[in-house]
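Entry 14. Structure prediction run on the chain below.
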Amino acid sequence: MNLFSINSPFASAVNKLVQMIWAGILWFVCSIPIVTIGAATTALYEVLLKMEKNQEGYVGVSFLRAFRENMRNATLVWLPLFAAEVVLGVNLFYYAVFGGGRFPVQSVVFAVLLMLAVTLSGYVFPVLARFENTTAGTWRMAAVLAIRNPAWSAVILSVQLLTAVVCWFFLYFPLLFIMGITGYFQAVIFNHIFDKLIAEGKIVETDRG
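Output returned:
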């Protein structure tokens, strides 16, 4: 009976899983206009970074507040990043698929560039979610963190690629909830990276409420 009590570890784990799924659903709904994906992703990470520390409060209220507050800055980050990924992806598809193996150098170059862009996108929204900064400062900080943490960058990239594969294989249905689950796993990594740098005095965290 203790296993199913409100304060049991099992109940806490189930509650946290439900909160992750709820956050993922909110991300999906708020991302439907496409242009708002940046704000939705930033809001998702702001909630999940706090959730990992048991500081999230009401998930719905926290998410929507963060979504509104980050709309401008996150959109300024998201749109050029999205454009770059589309251009690189189209070029990769052209040389690797339509090229029929006749352009191996171009295929490798665009594959590497696309991978770097995706890796950078993995850092930029958590950075925006946790730290007050200018748009340019957010880009720089995300790039530096990605370069200085190659092992974690590889893990984060793998998680994101795995998420994309799962969504593709199941015809996108997991997008309804999976972002909250995989995002939480990444939030654990980002909090580890951020907290270490804060403890070393290399970066300063500003209270975002």
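DSSP finds eight helices and no strands in the chain.
Filed with the rest of this week's runs.
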